[in-house]
Amino acid sequence: MTETLPDRPPARRLAPGNRVVLYGIAAVVAILGAAAVFLFIALPDANAFNARVERLFVASQGLTSPAEIRLLEILAQSGTAFSEVLASYRLIIFILMVFAAALLVAALVFLVIILTLNRRMGEIARAGIQVNSLVISREENAVWLNDMEFKLTPAAIETIAVLAEARMDDDVLSGAQIEAVISGRNAADCDEAAGATRIKRLRDALGNQMVSELLVRNIARRGYVLAIDKVAIRMM
What we know:
62% helix
């Protein structure tokens, strides 16, 4: 009986976005490398001045006076200083090019990260926040959203409790209806702005803007609703 070998997992391929990042980084490094090579080639040789002075010494064998010899010595010292300065310039240019390459690569990576985060935020905004459990405790004035605990004011607890009860009944409440349920008055006697104010205070109490905006949805011309599955809601 022959034993069948398990299939090998398929080789992982880079996503198109990752390939674009790698190509972009390679292009940045290649461009800066070519610019650095061109710049170093364009710079004069560090010993060019010394070579000219040497030729001047050879052509000036007839200069024997102390002043003329002193002038030649000054020229030789100037050539040495020039070569040292030019060598230091080359080192500085090399360091600056490396630093520029690192900055451009980092900027490219951060740009891709920002675009990725924005795309994920858009997906979350379209799909809504994933809530596995929402526990509301009136006694402790607290709300447990998944593993996050939020301490709320009694008014905020009443607001989210009303929204939770409406969600379990598949209802959408307007601002006036929310104010009517909490205050015990008729919805016709309540102001829409009062309920909207309660929603705003609830979102402020939750703190995290993304969580609060996605948790408490505003449906145009209808009202407010909790954007979670009703089976995840539990009242204490």
